[in-house]
Design brief:
Length: 201
């Protein structure tokens, strides 16, 4: 009796090869969306977290362009983390929809270690950050170093925030200089912050 592995149809082999290739390409594209997001993101629609977390001592920076939409159901939608280095997030004309199942900030600029400045700026266009699920803050900076933490909305820019999570500590904008550094918050734009719990700023 022949084994099952000897019973195959040669004509089907190209189909299986094409399917395997398509799966590999799809996985590669998904991985690319989730990693190596430092610098300017290409305009588009993303459904996984966009993160910039370089090696220690290397500045982290991530920025969006007008017309970009990021919708995520896990983790932060946009994350920049500097390890003993600066961290910068810049949004421009971007829509964020974040509904993580566990605590996470939707847009997050973070410095760990003893050195580094953290900034989060909204610069140009109409920007919307919608937060649900078990999220924490819509937009947040946490700086464990003694460096400066800066949040800004530029003139002519619109920022609308909806944080629909009930309970304390679910803020619109939160800046935590846990390392003892200074904090600057400047809002020269327009828009609305709507909450069910926590503070607007």
């Amino acid at each position: 009796m022949k084994s099952a592995r000897n019973h195959f149809h040669v004509g089907f082999a190209p189909h299986f090869k094409r399917s395997a290739l398509l799966v590999a390409m799809a996985n590669a594209l998904m991985l690319a969306d989730a990693q190596a997001a430092c610098g300017p993101l290409a305009v588009g629609t993303y459904n996984v977290s966009q993160t910039c977390t370089p090696a220690a001592g290397v500045d982290a920076s991530i920025s969006t362009q007008a017309g970009t939409a990021i919708t995520t159901t896990a983790g932060s939608s946009v994350l920049s983390r500097g390890n003993n280095a600066n961290s910068t997030v810049t949004l421009s004309g971007t829509t964020i929809n974040s509904t993580p199942p566990t605590a996470a900030n939707a847009v997050f600029s973070n410095v760990i270690g003893s050195t580094g400045n953290a900034s989060l700026s909204v610069d140009g266009g109409t920007n919307t950050v919608n937060v649900g699920g078990s999220a924490l803050d819509a937009m947040a900076i946490t700086n464990a170093s003694s460096g400066l933490s800066t949040f800004s909305v530029t003139s002519g820019t619109t920022l609308n925030i909806l944080n629909s999570v009930v309970g304390n500590e679910h803020d619109g904008i939160d800046v935590n200089a846990s390392g003892g550094g200074g904090i600057n918050v400047t809002h020269d734009g327009s828009g609305q912050i709507t909450l069910l719990g926590g503070n607007g700023i």
